[in-house]
Amino acid sequence: MAKDRFRATETRALLEIDRERGVAAKLQKELDASRVTNNQVVERLRSEATALQAQLGDLRQKSGMLEGSLQAVTTNRDMTLNELKGVQVQLTEMTSQIPAF
Q: Which of 1, 27, 55, 91 lies 20 to 30 A from 12 at CA?
């Protein structure tokens, strides 16, 4: 009878070990799948970051060009305003020299 109980206990232990191995194998597969998914996500994010950095560089270059153009337009406007003020002064002087009737 002790041998029967020992065999039954041994059988239960072997079944428990087999179940644990099955669970461990399933968890290992899930872990491997998660690693693959994680690597894919990391690679996609790296690609996106690289693309965004390139886009940022392009936008910075465009911004610099626009700032240069704005500065040129501002300088041109200031020169035009100065010329206009000079013409206004000349016009004022000419009108003050015209005799009133």
A: 27
CA separation for the pair 28, 24 (Å, rounded): 6
User: Taking residues 37-43, what's their average pLDDT?
Assistant: 98
Return the DSSP state at 61: H
**pTM higher than 0.70, yes or no?**
no
Give the C-alpha distances (Å, rounded to integers) separating 26 from 12, 18, 30, 39, 73. Answer: 21, 12, 6, 20, 69
* Of 100, 84, 2, nearest in space to 10 by CA: 2
Eight-state DSSP code of residue 100: P
User: What token pair was written down for 52?
Assistant: 């965004």
